[in-house]
């Protein structure tokens, strides 16, 4: 039996503590070193010395690292690991802007290292099943993907607005679920909580496939909502990623029409509703297992840094659209 992979973690905040828990739980991995300039406020890594930097993690002899520091530090930390030949899983978004994201992706690709971005929603059982069913043609032609990601402001966020923190999930998962890149976006945003960055955004857009998209994202709602609805010619699939539920609403009119004079008309009416029974594994654990397997050369179920770069481009386009009041088209 081969020795376990030696993993390191930098960033022991609200997200870092969950990474630490999962790194200690999965087979074939040993969490050997952690780092955070501010210590370990949540007691996430008992028994381990809290190191001061990424360089100190490298010196500890790690095989791969998980980066859970604030977005503004992603570039410097990730490049330190790339230069040292350490595989890396970087929390979303990949970087603060497009230039930094290009630097990071290029560095890992040039070094032949496994680099991934932590888009945890992709590993939610409801969205994984939704994507599989769409790929198999259950909905037929896809007309629209709409998401709602709403809730209160999380005190952990200090360096970005709601677009880079939350909407980045929706931009990533929409392109992934549909299997088509984002072609154009139009957005409006506002600031209502006294912060410098936006705390509410509404985004409409279109994928390269022609599918329409819509995203409502904010930190101003007194309830938490995480919903993705995909509508197609045969019905709709609706995923609630808080409960990991997936429901199919059939279009009763999608059945074969034998009435010749009506064959050119596509009607819509309520049909059967089915809530699927899913195996509910913790998404973060599934994400860690997928990255471990990629490092070992046993799988490719990761969000690549090149995909992470594409999402950063989409995020920047949303912010530009909201600022300029214009439709922004993304290069394919």
TrEMBL record:
Family: Belongs to the Gfo/Idh/MocA family.
InterPro entries recorded: Gfo/Idh/MocA-like_OxRdtase_C (IPR004104), Gfo/Idh/MocA-like_OxRdtase_N (IPR000683), Gfo/Idh/MocA_Oxidoreductases (IPR051450), NAD(P)-bd_dom_sf (IPR036291)
Protein species of origin: Brachybacterium equifaecis
Protein name: Gfo/Idh/MocA family oxidoreductase
Boundaries of every Gfo/Idh/MocA-like oxidoreductase C-terminal domain copy: 131-328
Domain Gfo/Idh/MocA-like oxidoreductase N-terminal: 6-119
